[in-house]
Fold this sequence. Notes:
This protein starts with 11 loop residues before the first helix and ends with a helix. Strand 5 (195-199), helix 9 (206-215) and strand 6 form a beta-alpha-beta unit. By secondary structure, the chain is α/β, with parallel strands linked by helices. The chain has helices at residues 12-16, 20-23, 42-59, 62-71, 87-99, 120-128, 143-152, 171-185, 206-215, 235-244, 254-257, 325-343, 347-357; strands at residues 76-81, 102-106, 133-138, 160-165, 195-199, 222-226, 247-251, 263-266, 302-304. The longest helix is centred in the last third of the chain and has 19 residues, at 325-343. Phosphoric acid mono(formamide)ester binds next to helix 5.
Amino acid sequence: MAQNRKLSDISWDDFQALSLIEKGPFFQGNTPHTLIAQQFTRAGLEELCTLATRIKRINKRRDGANYLKSLLSDKRAMLYFAQPSSRTYLSFNAACQILGLDTMDVRDTKTSSEVKGESPEDTIRTFSSYVDMIIMRHPVGGFAERVAWMLAHTNREIPLLNAGSGADQHPTQALLDVYTLTRSLNRVGGMDGKHVAFVGDLARGRTVRSLAWMLTLYDDMTLYFVAPEPLQIGQDILDLLDQAGTKYVVTQDFASVMPIADAIYMTRIQDEWDVAGQSSTTGSSEYRIEAKHMDILKDTTAILHPLPRREEISTDIDNDPRAMYWRQMRNGMWIRAALMLKTFHRQDEVHQYYDDYKPES
Ligand code: CP
């Protein structure tokens, strides 16, 4: 069991050989990194959600916004995005601004010295010399873990926040998804016992892989994985759900799931990962939500999407109260601000400020 062990105490080969569940405790406690969904506990998620809401409320008032801006004004963050991004990049950048962090970025690796043959590890180590935190999106699965391990073996182990790695993990997206689900499902009795459907390209969707694990932390949930066979959820995720004792259904039949889902998490085709034309299997309208489906859904079903979308959600349902995806996107800014405060251990001050001033909801 990896409990209470540190990245600095384990070889890379031994660390790599661990399962995701065994890796989780390496990123709990006082370790600064946010890398995988498996490092979170339910209490930790609930604390982040409460903190996010408090930041949002404090930020509404000018004096509150100025207070928040003072909290991390002694810190600098590097936004290293080696893959395209709109929401994750902008919401992290906005969260930095809310908390007063200065930011630098590299969004095109052709502008860094990687083009001169510098290794990706040396590139990150170079960044770590100038900033107090690195927020990284990278196309190579597992590279974020490698970087965290490398930083743990230097004298400057600054926090690394995984903003999406390969097709395997997107833990901060899962945080904003949980935040949005919590706020939506609290209106109908909370998260426990609910039916959550994932629809679309589940094989290559890193947001689904991270969120599915986080939902195992809630009681008596049933997860539905709705996709054509070539794009179905990976067996590795189903094995994790089995280990966690979370119920799930794997199906191609979206029509049968629509009326029973308390939340539906739509995803786009991730054709940037195509190697065998898998994307052509979702050409039909079976895996879409359109206006004609809204009467089939419950009145309270929350519709989420990590975005960007293509055809899988018709724009004519955007103003339906069940369409949560625009709110979900904005929630990313608040939960990422909460995560950064927690990363730098400044959350207690914000709770105290909130309790003293009680900003309006
Ligand atoms: N959801 C998400 O990760 O969006 P971006 O790729 O735009 O950051």
